[in-house]
Structures are given as structure tokens and as C-alpha cells.
Design brief:
Strand content: 5-15%
Structural class: alpha+beta
Low-confidence stretches: none
Order of helices and strands: EHHEH
Largest sheet: 2 strands, antiparallel
Distance between the termini: 30 Å
Helix content: 25-40%
Mean pLDDT: 82
Number of strands: 2
Length: 70
């Protein structure tokens, strides 16, 4: 993340802060709000580097802030 923008760049395997493994289907369903994110994180995500808490903090960077009520 840089200035609020996510940039995908190639990295070396040992240069990671967080590494998780999950099926593409589960991840897409979570993002589409078909699956409960908390349940998916607990059940389907395998953290191989870092922690689930660090991954949750990272994913929260992508949650839009609530705007003023209209």
C-alpha cells in the first residue's frame, strides 16, 4: 500500500510480511460478501507467515470509510 493505492509487485519469497493460503473461490466469495469474512478467516485461511491479525489489519485497508449519511 502506498498513498492509499495497492500495488502488486514481484517479491522474493523471504521478503514477505504476511503470507496466507486460501482457495480463489473462497476469497472471491468473501469479497463478494457471499461468505462471512470472520468465518472464512477462521475456517478457510491458512497463515504460513505472519498472523491472522496482521492479515485482518491489512484487509481493513480496503474497507471504504463510511461517508456522511444522506
Amino acid at each position: 500500500m502506498r498513498r492509499g493505492v495497492s500495488e502488486v509487485v514481484p517479491v522474493l519469497q523471504n521478503d514477505l510480511d504476511i503470507r496466507v493460503q486460501v482457495s480463489a473461490q473462497v476469497f472471491k466469495e468473501m469479497l463478494a460478501q457471499i461468505r462471512n469474512p470472520a468465518v472464512a478467516m477462521a475456517k478457510d485461511f491458512e497463515v504460513t507467515q505472519g498472523s491472522k491479525l496482521a492479515f485482518i489489519r491489512f484487509m481493513r485497508l480496503f474497507v471504504p470509510e463510511a461517508g456522511p449519511e444522506q
